[in-house]
């Protein structure tokens, strides 16, 4: 890793330790960099691991990258560079929602969504009137929506929302395809609605609220929000340094606390990272969080994950007191996107933590 044990060389609050000091086998971790230096197709940009609250592995690579679709060319990554989080931001939005809930700005997750949008009263139907905040958080609102086709396809629902004259109206005017709460269907429009509700109840743009309520308490200063054409921050579009994303993961691992300060309630963390609906494949889904498991040495290890397009991954493994960050540039390779993160998590992070 190149950093001596003790304080971080980035003056960002991290304590650094050697893997063996926190019960991780360095010999296992040493295989990660050679594999991905040779496996150029994986286009891995960085891998970080935190155990017992200390940064124990940090490695950066060189590869092609983009900033929200804009080509950056070949980038030599290092600890000081921001990276697209893509839909990992959705999980951050979930925590922000928990903060306004803790502050009493939202009384109940059973409140109907349309109650927050009186300007769209003309869209109300019996089915849409049943959509509540919990359905937004679990992506189970039942609205017709298709993000499974490529973003380049004009029929992609997120793309259509992005160019709509009124993004929130576009989401809410989609027909009801199934009853609210019945099934999960990936829908970035629902996160956009969560962002709009955050702004309505907090009285501030989401970036300003996030800075005060989340980033400043975590000591995160280098923040970039992707913005819509009208300048509004995108509730699913942050760029952060990987080290700062690791702080967010540690916040979840600490059940909402950082440096002995409760930033979001333990109750919200417990509720939001519990399974609420069946997600995609074998995954469960919480409140904008993916919930999965890995089998290592015949042991089943459960984890919480934030997932972003292009191979962005944040894994939180409570049973092993472990956080893993992966960022990559696999925007045109949906097949490899899950594979790279899974290899780093299972073959290196989990295997190292279970080997000693």
Descriptive overview:
With 356 residues, the chain is α+β, with helices and mostly antiparallel strands. The protein folds into 2 domains: 6-88 and 206-212 and 219-354, DD-peptidase/beta-lactamase superfamily (Beta-lactamase), CATH 3.40.710; 91-202, Methane Monooxygenase Hydroxylase, Chain G, domain 1 (Up-down Bundle). The protein is built from 11 helices and 17 strands. A 10-stranded mixed β-sheet has the order 1-2-4-3-17-16-15-14-13-12, sandwiched between helices. Strand 1 and strand 2 form a beta hairpin. The longest helix has 19 residues, at 336-354. The radius of gyration is 20 Å and the shape is globular.
CATH architecture of the largest domain: 3-Layer(aba) Sandwich
Instruction: Quote the distance from N terminus to C terminus.
Output: 20 Å
Query: Helicity range of the residues?
Result: 25-40%
Q: What best-fitting shape do the alpha-carbon axes yield?
A: globular
CATH hierarchy, class of the largest domain: Alpha Beta
Please, how many helices?
Answer: 11
Number of domains: 2
The biggest sheet amounts to: 10 strands, mixed
Q: The CATH topology of the largest domain, please?
A: Beta-lactamase
């Amino acid at each position: 890793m190149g950093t001596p044990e003790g304080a971080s060389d980035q003056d960002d609050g991290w304590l650094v330790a050697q893997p063996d000091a926190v019960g991780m086998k360095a010999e296992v971790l040493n295989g990660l960099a050679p594999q991905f230096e040779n496996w150029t197709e994986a286009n891995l940009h960085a891998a970080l691991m935190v155990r017992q609250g200390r940064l124990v592995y940090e490695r950066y690579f060189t590869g092609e990258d983009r900033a929200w679709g804009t080509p950056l060319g070949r980038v030599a990554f290092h600890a000081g560079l921001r990276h697209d989080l893509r839909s990992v931001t959705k999980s951050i939005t979930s925590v922000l929602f928990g903060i306004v809930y803790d502050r009493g700005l939202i009384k109940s997750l059973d409140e109907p969504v349309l109650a927050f949008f009186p300007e769209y009263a003309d869209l109300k139907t019996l089915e849409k009137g049943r959509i509540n905040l919990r359905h937004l958080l679990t992506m189970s609102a039942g609205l017709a929506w298709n993000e499974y086709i490529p973003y380049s396809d004009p029929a992609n629902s997120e793309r259509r929302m992005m160019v709509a004259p009124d993004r929130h109206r576009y989401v809410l005017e989609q027909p009801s395809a199934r009853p609210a709460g019945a099934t999960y269907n990936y829908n970035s429009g629902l996160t956009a609605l969560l962002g709009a509700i955050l702004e309505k109840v907090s009285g501030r743009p989401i970036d300003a609220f996030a800075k005060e309520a989340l980033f400043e308490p975590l000591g995160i200063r280098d923040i970039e929000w992707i913005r819509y054409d009208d300048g509004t921050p995108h509730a699913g579009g942050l760029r952060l340094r990987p080290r700062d994303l690791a702080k967010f993961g540690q916040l979840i691992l600490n059940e909402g606390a950082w440096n002995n300060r409760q930033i979001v309630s333990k109750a919200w963390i417990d509720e939001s990272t519990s399974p609420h609906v069946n997600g995609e494949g074998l995954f469960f889904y919480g409140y904008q969080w993916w919930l999965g498991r890995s089998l290592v040495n015949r042991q089943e290890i459960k984890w919480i994950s934030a997932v972003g397009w292009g191979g962005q991954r944040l894994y939180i493994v409570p049973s092993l007191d472990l956080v893993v960050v992966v960022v990559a540039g696999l925007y045109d390779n949906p097949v490899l996107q899950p594979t790279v993160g899974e290899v780093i998590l299972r073959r290196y992070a989990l295997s190292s933590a279970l080997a000693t």
